[in-house]
Amino acid sequence: MDNCIFCKIAAKQIPSKIIHEDDDLLVFHDINPAAAVHFLIVPKKHIATLADCTEADGALLSKMSLLAPKLAQQLGCGYSVENGEAKGGFKTLFNTGPDGGQEVYHLHMHVIGGPRPWTRSPV
Ligand code: 5GP
Ligand code: ZN
């Protein structure tokens, strides 16, 4: 998609701090993090918003959701229960449309975590 910044990042035409790459997804650090850990899970395929996804995108959305806790764990904000006490954790977020606060119209899941307080509210 012309003039889509995340298509350009996915195509490596614009640099990013990459955390993970596979055939379907590129994951990179958000340029303006809301917390100590803030990365974006981005499909390589251009889809404008979550509202544009169809049943055919179900496997892709599932893959994004299942990857989030794995990468959060790698980056030090995984969720665990130790001796019955919940620890760590992260927020996953899709902004959709103007009222949803979406600025980049290429589907992405925010994964935000790290010790509270955070730098700013992610919503
Ligand atoms: P949205 O508001 O669309 O849900 O989130 C877009 C996110 O993309 C924002 O958190 C913003 O900081 C991030 N972002 C925008 N442009 C770039 C960029 O060029 N590189 C990186 N790494 N992140 C970006
Ligand atoms: Zn795009």
Key terms for this structure?
123 residues, alpha+beta, five-stranded antiparallel sheet, 19% helix, 27% strand, binds zinc ion
Give structural notes.
- This protein is an alpha+beta fold and 123 residues long.
- It has two helices and seven strands; from the N terminus they run H-E-E-E-H-E-E-E-E.
- It has helices spanning 5-10, 58-74; strands spanning 18-21, 25-29, 37-43, 79-82, 85-88, 90-93, 109-113.
- The strands form two sheets. Strands 1-2-3-7-6 form a five-stranded antiparallel sheet, covered by helices on one side. It has a two-stranded antiparallel ribbon with strand order 4-5.
- A hairpin with a 3-residue loop joins strand 1 (18-21) and strand 2.
- The longest helix is centred in the middle third of the chain and has 17 residues, at 58-74.
- It starts with a helix and ends in a 10-residue tail after the last strand.
- 24% of the residues are buried.
- The mean pLDDT is 97.
- Bound molecules: guanosine-5'-monophosphate (5GP) and zinc ion.
- Residues 5, 16, 28-32, 95, 101-104 line the site of guanosine-5'-monophosphate.
